[in-house]
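Try it yourself: sequence plus magnesium ion, in.
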Amino acid sequence: MSTTEQTYIMIKPDGVQRGLVGEIIARFEKRGFKLAALKMETPSKELLEKHYGDLADKPFFPKLVKYMLSGPVICMVWEGLDAVKTGRVMLGATNPLASNPGTIRGDYALQVGMNVCHGSDSVENAKKEIELWFNNDVKQYKLDAAQWIYEA
Ligand code: UDP
Ligand code: MG
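Structure, out:
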């Protein structure tokens, strides 16, 4: 666990279409995480198949790729204490119906096939995803507010 841990967070096409971009960014900002990279992207099928490579043999895989191709996505890297695990907690469960209120999926989604937002599930996968989506082009700067977020 470190204060420079990074996670890859992606607002999926339904999140963009439903006007949830600002809301989702605001949650990570307000929590105290540092924005390290941000872009809008219309990913290729190849990129999405790589991103979701671990799920290639799942029955829902073709539907998942089609969903992710249905519109632009917002790609982000957020940095801070325990960012990967905390990001997943902020997202909620994969199935929105099982997600607690107060989580992104628990507040804004109902079905697993349109669950609004992606978050890396391990530090190792976060590294792979940041390389895949940003080619590791992540900004380095000091967040001045950090002195009010992290204990000395
Ligand atoms: N998904 C789906 N049906 C399922 C499981 C997953 O459509 O039964 C989709 C859903 O959009 C999910 C994505 O596939 O977010 C990736 O699945 P994963 O198990 O990695 O869930 P996540 O890490 O996004 O919570
Ligand atoms: Mg996953």
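One thing you can check immediately is this: The beta strands are 6-11, 34-41, 73-79, 117-119.
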